[in-house]
Q: What sequence folds into this?
């Protein structure tokens, strides 16, 4: 297995996409958290944010029109959205360790444009990477083959020499379909053990 590059997903791999805890921090009742999780976060609209065909500015009005009974909660959610993600403590040291061993390290993330501008400037792990691709800027999302191939064309790497790490099996399958090696992320300790077996750590 000739691996020269390691490519990471971001959400729920290097940062916690903590939308439920975030809503609880804002004081939302459990039933409201359940409703807005299902009907706002885990929806086609959020996928369209990742795809760059919708904007975060549209979101409050869009969801308030659909669910006027939650107008205050929806407004609060989108006003305070800085805290919807937290970087995992292990993220920067992990990326640095891989980089220090001579591997290229890249980021491939489905992420909304405005949220990336808000969040990514504070992610410490980015300082140890060789490049990143954010779906909303490219108008392509994983698992579309085109977004994996963009890594190859933009950064001059070989997909067959690259290991991809993601928490969603559909994205792992997409990576394997274009010739990448891949690991499904199921927790930091398990990933670390896998990387040790591959002599990457």
A:
């Amino acid at each position: 297995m000739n691996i020269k590059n390691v490519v990471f997903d971001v959400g729920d791999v290097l940062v916690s996409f903590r939308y439920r805890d975030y809503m609880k921090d804002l004081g939302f009742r459990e039933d409201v958290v359940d409703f807005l999780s299902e009907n706002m976060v885990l929806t086609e609209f959020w996928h369209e944010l990742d795809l760059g065909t919708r904007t975060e500015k549209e979101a409050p009005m869009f969801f308030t029109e659909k669910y006027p009974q939650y107008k205050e909660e929806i407004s609060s959610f989108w006003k305070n959205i800085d805290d919807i993600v937290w970087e995992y403590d292990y993220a920067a040291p992990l990326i640095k360790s891989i980089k220090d061993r001579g591997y290229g390290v890249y980021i491939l993330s489905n992420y909304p444009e405005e949220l990336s501008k808000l969040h990514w400037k504070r992610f410490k792990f980015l300082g140890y990477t060789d490049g990143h691709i954010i779906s909303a800027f490219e108008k392509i999302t994983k698992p579309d083959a085109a977004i994996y191939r963009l890594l190859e064309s933009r950064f001059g790497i070989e997909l067959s020499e690259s290991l991809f790490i993601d928490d969603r099996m559909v994205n792992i399958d997409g990576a394997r379909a274009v010739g990448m090696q891949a690991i499904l992320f199921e927790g930091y300790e398990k990933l670390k053990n896998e990387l040790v077996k591959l002599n990457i750590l």
Observations:
- The longest helix spans residues 30-41.
- The radius of gyration is 18 Å.
- The longest strand covers residues 104-109.
